């Protein structure tokens, strides 16, 4: 049995779309189940559903053997995992965004304050960063911040909240990560699963 950590949300929808394009019905029917159950099994693969930032923690500590996670999570914090490969889905990017009339970003809200800090440090631009856990688009609307550093995929969240992109910061993709020990001790099961879903072999 191998354990695969997934996150429900944007990346999960992309993964399901990817499986549908490859007609991998065996996994689709199990994963698309609407129940609130946090794990499910098919043949020798157990899937667990974690919050995005927790996926690398489960993998690092060996509770999961492999994980599918956005490179945003891996760029924001460091984890002791094997960063195996880029996956062909989950593409989006980080941008600095705000209302249309911002002349200078003095205060910026983000869920990703490490990525934001690196960006402004590289520009040698002093900034006050405010950490929020989501719905960061609210911050400039309420004058809590001049702008946000956030993930943009379709751009509709920004548009719907009257915000525009000022500068792209970083591309984001889905990544395959693995536990440093079980990636080798469970090599056969992991390889079989990855080959089956078409990301290896
Ligand atoms: C992300 C991001 C934006 C949205 C962008 O949020 O923080 O809010 O997706 O997608 P779009 O460009 O297609 O509109 P996520 O769904 O990950 O949840 P969050 O608000 O909790 O961060």
Automatic annotation (TrEMBL):
Key words of the record: Amino-acid biosynthesis, ATP-binding, Cytoplasm, Glycosyltransferase, Histidine biosynthesis, Nucleotide-binding, Transferase
GO molecular function list: ATP phosphoribosyltransferase activity
The EC number(s) this enzyme carries: 2.4.2.17
Tagged with keyword Glycosyltransferase: yes
Pathway: Amino-acid biosynthesis; L-histidine biosynthesis; L-histidine from 5-phospho-alpha-D-ribose 1-diphosphate: step 1/9
Gene3D superfamilies: Periplasmic binding protein-like II (3.40.190.10)
EC class name: transferase
Location relative to the cell: Cytoplasm
Pfam families on file: HisG (PF01634)
Signal peptide limits: none
UniProt-listed InterPro entries: ATP_PRibTrfase_cat, ATP_PRibTrfase_CS, ATP_PRibTrfase_HisG, ATP_PRibTrfase_HisG_short
Record field: catalytic activity: 1-(5-phospho-beta-D-ribosyl)-ATP + diphosphate = 5-phospho-alpha-D-ribose 1-diphosphate + ATP
Chain ranges of the ATP phosphoribosyltransferase catalytic domain: 53-197
Protein origin, superkingdom: Bacteria
Function, as annotated: Catalyzes the condensation of ATP and 5-phosphoribose 1-diphosphate to form N'-(5'-phosphoribosyl)-ATP (PR-ATP). Has a crucial role in the pathway because the rate of histidine biosynthesis seems to be controlled primarily by regulation of HisG enzymatic activity.
Domain note: Lacks the C-terminal regulatory region which is replaced by HisZ.
NCBIfam families: hisG
Quaternary structure and partners: Heteromultimer composed of HisG and HisZ subunits.
UniProt family annotation: Belongs to the ATP phosphoribosyltransferase family. Short subfamily.
PANTHER family to which the protein is assigned, alphabetical: ATP PHOSPHORIBOSYLTRANSFERASE, ATP PHOSPHORIBOSYLTRANSFERASE ATP-PRTASE
Protein name: ATP phosphoribosyltransferase
């Amino acid at each position: 049995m191998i354990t695969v950590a997934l996150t429900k949300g944007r990346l999960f929808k992309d993964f399901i779309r990817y499986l549908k394009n490859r007609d991998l019905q065996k996994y689709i029917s199990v994963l698309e189940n609407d129940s609130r159950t946090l794990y499910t099994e098919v043949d020798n693969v157990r899937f667990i559903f974690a919050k995005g930032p927790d996926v690398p923690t489960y993998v690092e500590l060996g509770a999961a053997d492999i994980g599918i996670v956005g490179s945003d999570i891996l760029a924001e914090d460091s984890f002791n995992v094997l960063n195996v490969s880029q996956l062909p889905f989950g593409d989006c990017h980080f941008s600095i965004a705000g209302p249309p009339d911002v002349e200078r970003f003095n205060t910026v809200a983000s869920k990703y304050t490490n990525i934001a800090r690196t960006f402004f440090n590289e520009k040698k631009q002093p900034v006050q960063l405010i950490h929020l856990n989501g719905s960061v688009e609210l911050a400039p609307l309420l004058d809590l911040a001049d702008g946000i550093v956030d993930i943009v995929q379709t751009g509709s969240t920004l548009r719907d909240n009257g915000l525009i992109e000022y500068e792209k910061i970083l591309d984001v993709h889905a990544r395959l990560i693995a536990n440093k020990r079980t990636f080798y001790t469970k090599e056969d099961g992991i390889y079989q699963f990855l080959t089956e879903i078409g990301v290896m072999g």
